Amino acid sequence: MEAKPARLSRTVLTEIILPADTNYHNTVFGGRVMQYIDKVATIASMRHSRRGVVTASSDSLDFYAPVKLGEAIQLEAFVTWTHRSSMEVFVKIESENLLTGEKKRTANSYLTFVALDDNGQPCAVPGIIPETEEEKRLFETAETRFAARKLRKEERSLYM
């Protein structure tokens, strides 16, 4: 299976934050952001694997700033690394004040997806070819995150 450039999985989702998306602070619900993250990361992983996928884990969701009512939220996702049937997807989230044009980094997240064959079983995925500085940095640090994920999974299995 031939490796693919990370850029081919790059996916952007933009939404405007409306009253139904906000909490009592007039900022977006964290759960709504999580929904957007899962959606954009699913598309990125399907673009890379050209297979149905399932979310295997969400490693982290680090919030840096709120997204306010009336602002746009933009999520950009791409596959950073693969391992047999799994894909690590990085999602960066920005907000934009549509009246002033001011943009700010709102959050980052890492998720893992598994590609499935026609019988719903995990199947092999292509490797990744990082091209930009950001892609290369994330690719080079991915094995460390993979090892941490594996350790966390082993530790959790002790409590199940």
TrEMBL record:
PROSITE patterns per UniProt: HOTDOG_ACOT
What keywords would UniProt list here? Answer: Hydrolase
Q: Which domain of life is it from?
A: Bacteria
One GO MF term on file is: hydrolase activity
InterPro entries the record matches: Cytosol_ACT, HOTDOG_ACOT, HotDog_dom_sf, Thioestr_dom
- Gene3D superfamilies for this protein: Hotdog Thioesterase
Annotated HotDog ACOT-type domain ranges read 7-119
**Do you know which SUPFAM superfamilies this protein is assigned to?**
Thioesterase/thiol ester dehydrase-isomerase
The record ties this protein, via Pfam families, to:
4HBT (PF03061)
The family annotation for this protein states: Belongs to the acyl coenzyme A hydrolase family.
The name of this protein is Acyl-CoA hydrolase
Q: Which organism is it from?
A: Paenibacillus aceris
